Amino acid sequence: MNKKIPYKINFPKIGNPSTGYISIAEKENLPFIPERIYWTYFTPESIKRGGHAHINLEQILVAVSGTIKLKIETSEGEILDFTLDSPDIGVFVPKKSWRTLKYSHNAVQMCIASIEYDEKDYIHDYEEFKLIHK
Question: Which of the following is catalytic: 52, 105, 124, 133?
């Protein structure tokens, strides 16, 4: 697992169509020890979320329901697009990565975060984020 490049994480999927499924995020398939878990829901389709980076925070984003289009720009300037539409797949978002997200009307996003909330950890200005590349 490269902690500088975003990548998909396939969580184990246990069960079958007749009884349903469960997916598990345990320490052996996580790139960090979670300090916070939160979820986002009822986001209007007309809204773009994100528009920021984090200095130290790493995240795993999962679409528990619906579809989320995720665009990530790394601190090295690489741009990657992901579509999250299955609850057994997540995307690792490294620190110092700019992200934007677009949600379907029924999307529920779970975020597994490496640190507790800290407003000082946010980079809200894209030009300030671009200075990381230099």
Answer: 52
With a cut of 60, say whether residue 98 has pLDDT above it: yes
Distance CA 22, CA 3 (A): 26
pLDDT at position 50 over 90: yes
Mean pLDDT score, 11-17:
93
Q: Which residues pair with 40 in a beta bridge?
A: 109
Bridge partner residues of 84 (DSSP)? 68
29 pLDDT tier (thresholds 50, 70, 90): confident
CA distances to 37, 75, 91 from 31, rounded to whole Å, are 15, 18, 11
Confirm if 90 and 38 have CB atoms less than 8 A apart. Answer: no
CA distance 114 to 98: 16
In whole angstroms, what is the distance from residue 134 CA to residue 130 CA? 8
52 is catalytic: yes
